[in-house]
Amino acid sequence: MELVCPAGTPAALKVAVDAGAGAVYCGFNDETNARNFPGLNFSREELIAGIALAHRRGVKVLVAINTFPRAGGMGLWRSAVDDATRAGADALILADVGLLDYAANKHPKQRLHVSVQAAAANADSIRFYVENFGVRRVVLPRVLSVPEIAAVTKECGCETEVFVFGGLCVMAEGRCSLSSYATGCSPNMQGACSPASHVNYRQERGKMVSRLGEFTINSFAKGEPAAYPTLCKGRFATNGALGYIFEDPTSLDAAAMLPGLKEAGVSALKIEGRQRGRAYIEAVVHAFRQALKALDAGRPIETASLSALTEGQTTTVGAYRKTWR
Amino acid sequence: MSASDLSILPAPPLLILAMRPLPLAPLQPLLSFLIASIVRRHRGLFVRLGAHAGKTFGIHPTDLPFAFELAPKPDRPRLVAVRTLSKGLDVRISGPLGALLGLVNGELDGDALFFSRDLRVEGDFEAVVALRNAVDDAQINLVDEIRSLLGPLGGPFEIVFRMALERLRETHEERGV
User: Fold this and answer.
1) Residue contact B127–A38, C-beta within 8 A
2) Using CA atoms, how far apart are residues A182 and B88, in angstroms rounded to an integer?
């Protein structure tokens, strides 16, 4: 299974390559990708240099152009497709059917992957992408159990890629409007969920209070692990009690599920975190490279504790081992 | 030791006590040379900072008796030591010295330090994120930067600085966490 690792900067790309990535995914520094954060991402020149560095080491570079183009604004997304192809990207990760159609027609030799942002969660919908745009791989949404992944992989007609570590978004990805509702900025079109421009932290009565736009998201007592200021992981008062009604602030760690994912026929394993620093990339990529070596050698997988790097400082296997259905 | 099992210790109390009465003025030339050197050697920082290069950042090592104010303007960068941070700064970042140094050196992850509550940020969060990403990509090595400024004193400084850095870190296992 290919280990697909995040890179938000050229320095992170180099770290990912050194740490054992099989492929690195990244995006341009504009709203064409779903990690459009201040100071993050690649210029055209940086992408060309990053691809050259990765290819010298036998590592692939996948370019995420996975937001949905604005009406009347297709030019930015189409030029991203053209420039990434020209730069020698090994694959483009796309979500929008119009952009997939453009890429398939304009660059018929370019390998295309369906982004998790497309929320393609069943074999019929994935086959639509395969048959109409010739896509070679789909990144599955983080809502499927391992048996469901096995069933989809068997029938969908292309490779499947699944997330194994990092931030956990269990909403219908590409369709969630919670952040748009709170900020007026769409993660699916402008590329930033809970954009930093709308985030505020302050100390109130000994607690750290996080706010997104006009909404208080959470408050953390002294020493309590903190979380991202996303509405889906907000702490709400309901029926007189405070709690997490959508999601707990926790991160995915599916290292223990690797044997099952291999058996399910999954082709690639994805680490989330293009917004994270080099230290995170180095530690997580290294841990999963070791885990894959152990898996291939038939040794038990030692699940290194990566919880110190995770949101809420706790981890889960999420929907891979569903207990609620 | 990997980033995943690093945790942060405060600077030794005796060292803090010893530093408290020291004047800050002798520190200033070193800070001015340091920021000028970083700006000269890492021009990419300002591309990533964009408009946020015009903002002011207060950096408070919570275990030291002084703080720093940073104005990373490309043409006139400023890094000064102060007893207390000024009002009106765009951003305030605070945390143990070991956390802040680890962040600059790329040995620690900013989000992880935030999750663990070792790092505290207030103010313009967009500027904080831009600075964090710019610094992480710049691959600044503070030891190298300062050693190159100190000339013949650089060697001994490196030994002392690395010992201090090691002292500021301890694994979870060692702490029994």
Assistant:
1) yes
2) 27
- What ipTM does this complex have? 0.93
Report CB contact under 8 Å: B136, A202.
Answer: no
Residues of B in contact with A308 (CB under 8 A): 4-7, 112, 116, 172
pLDDT at A148: 96
Where do we find the tokens 């929320």?
Answer: A119
Q: What pLDDT does B172 receive?
A: 36
Determine what percent of chain B is predicted with pLDDT higher than 90.
49
Domains and CATH numbers, chain A: 2-168+250-320 (3.20.20.70), 178-244 (no CATH)
Listed in sequence order, the residues at least 6 apart from B107 whose beta carbon sits closer than 8 Å to its beta carbon are A279, B3, B6
B154: buried, middle or exposed (CB in 10 Å: 19+, 13-18, 0-12)?
A: middle
**Domain extent at residue B160:** 3-172
Q: Give A122-164 pLDDT, tens digit per residue.
A: 999 999 999 999 999 999 999 899 999 999 999 999 999 999 9
- Here the tokens at position B168 are 């500021």
Q: Taking an 8 Å Cβ-Cβ cutoff, which residues of chain B contact chain A? A: 2-7, 47-50, 52, 102-103, 106-112, 114-117, 120-122, 125-134, 136-139, 172
Say if B177 falls within a structural domain: no
Query: In which element (H, E) is residue B58 found?
Result: strand B57-61
Tokens of A16: 């990912």
What's the mean pLDDT in B38-58? 93
CA end-to-end span of chain B: 15
Please tell me the total count of domains within chain B: 1
Six-digit token string for A259: 């044997």
Phi, psi for A209 (deg, rounded to 5) = -105, 130
Nearest to A200 among B2, B52, B125 (CB): B125
Residue B94 forms part of a structural domain = yes
Hunting for tokens 């007893």 — which residue is that?
Answer: B83
Residue type, A93: I
**C-alpha–C-alpha distance, residues A33 and A64, integer Å:** 6
Q: Which residues pair with A201 in a beta bridge?
A: A210
Domain holding B85: CATH number?
3.30.1050.10
Strands (E), A29-124: 60-65, 91-94, 112-114
Report d(CA A314, CA B87) in Å as an integer: 36
